[in-house]
Fold:
Amino acid sequence: MCLVFLCVTLLFLCSGCLRTKGPQFIMPAQDLRMEVPADSSPVLIFNGVNNLLYPATGDILVQVDGSVLPTLGRNEYAQVVLAPGTNELVLGHWDLVRFTDTYTFEVETPMVYVRVRSRPQSTEFEKLKVSLDYIEERYTPVRVPDDWGADG
Structure:
């Protein structure tokens, strides 16, 4: 009984640890076919965690250039608009312990697709060449809270 109480207490305390620190990224409309300024590129980040290999892990925390995106649940995507160039990507997930990894990635035009997923000891990303149809068939837009961006 004490072990169950200890586990529940640790999960409760660590649930607050899952939040990535930083200002919230101002999220554009999650319309995959939206027009973007000529000097920018849409970047589609999607959670491609393998449901069979990682049934207990799902949510992935994403931070781009110091700004936090809404947490990506299983099979969710977030679309952001960035200027071409090098950007910092911080990813995290919780699976008994918290894993946080920092990467850099290049943004090019016209569109960048980034799959993020949890691994046994890390959270990784991979740039892919896929189509909008592929994304629309398999993924849903991230749930952006009503008060998102109100803190920054």
In short: Strands lie at 41-47, 61-64, 67-68, 76-82, 85-95, 97-107, 112-119, 122-128, 140-141.
